[in-house]
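Weekly sync notes, structure subgroup
Attendees: PM, AL, DS (notes)

Item 1: joint prediction request from the bench team. They want all two components modeled as one assembly rather than separately. Inputs as received:
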Amino acid sequence: MSIQDKVISIIAEQAVLEPSDVTLDSTLEDLGIDSLGLVESIFAIEEEFDISIPFNANEPSESDFDISNVAAIIAGIEKLVAEKG
Amino acid sequence: MKRVVITGAGTINALGHSVPETLEAMREGRCGIGDLEFRDVERLSIRIGGQVRGFEAEGRFNRQQMSLYDRFTQFTLTAAKEALAQSGIEFHGELAAKSGVVLGTAGGGVSTWDDNYRSVYEDGKNRVHPFVVPKLMNNAAASHVSMEYNLKGPSFTVSTACASSNHAMAQAFQMVRSGMSPAMLTGGSESMLCFGGVKAWEGLRVMSKDACRPFSANRNGMVQGEGAGIFVFEEYEHAKKRGAEILCEVVGFAMSSDASDIVMPSKQGAARAISGALADGKISADSVGYINAHGTGTAANDKTECAAVADVFGPHADNLMISSTKSMHGHLIGGTGAVELLACIMALRDGVIAPTIGYEEPDPECALDVVPNEAREAQVDVALSNAFAFGGLNAVLALKKV
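Output from the run, pasted for the record:
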């Protein structure tokens, strides 16, 4: 499974949706994922890829990790996975 | 109904090992938050906290006591000693039979859990010390205080996360006000600054890596603290007859539940607790001069709390002062309301308002007088202390100058 598919499946599980319902331009709000759901998704993604995501729930827009939509989240994770080497 | 006054106060926290040291630090706007020091701290991403420094259990407690006292109990007994010395109250006979101790803690003996889990899971040991259970239980501190000071009346521990101390003090207040007990020891204690304690909080991603800046637009989360605050709540006539020094009067309280979310605060729930405390104490809103805020420094709490205060006080919200001393001592979780009550006592008795330090940028969503960075002299007749816990459990106390 590609990084993209894995991330989408994690987000879909959190949103209680089918992966096919999660599109690249979906926002977390569209998917009904609240702040607690987001923190849980980030945890699941970190566990899946063995990475650390720099995310502070107090300042989501200031964090060095873009969560504006699914595509941005995937891009951020691909970068972190590549940096891990 | 009886009048209830505070005749003794004691504390230990990151700002000092006593009430005078703590109040001096609050007056000076000193920060007690710094680099955490304990085993495995390098495995944490959050490495700051309001840790109690220079506190050695050795010398204060004997070997037998040390094997029974978790750090949260040690803090409690240290603060209780100071409070009782100031109050001068002694418990014998009927007074002892009716008086008790109600304390708040969220985690109880967290470092005892941590040390012993490490020992059995990581070190592979198959045996733990026989006193692990009596050491870690949440009521250990209350029980040891009862034994130390012969308190034979109602004693128990309240655990409502970050509102534990306020809920505990509200209970003690009710017991004295109703005439059930002539005096009660109350307050709370917390000691979560160990690897497991901070790691758990780290997971929630609401912690700041650099500072606690309540109400500031650039705030980025809470910072944990540790310590205890203990008070003697006493029936007014009883205190007067003894010639005890009265620090202030406790006049009202209210508790409310948001019944909405396990972590996100609610403006309505907070506002109901604040207005409830005013109603319970028969206090007019415009007589309130100071509020010690819950003010955690998280994005969610501070704006919700300011909105609740604005709702309850209307135009008077712009006249009163509201500060968060968590900026200095950190968030003591279950012990926080107790240490913060000291700032209310300082406002009422000494006419000094503790500042919110670390304040850098105004936030339009927190547009109240947050007493930024420097303490202020002001005459205050009524002060409130807010606590709004995870789980949506709120408790607000109202205090009055005597």
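Discussion: Chain A is about 50% helix and 0% strand.
Action: AL to compare against the crosslinking data before next sync.
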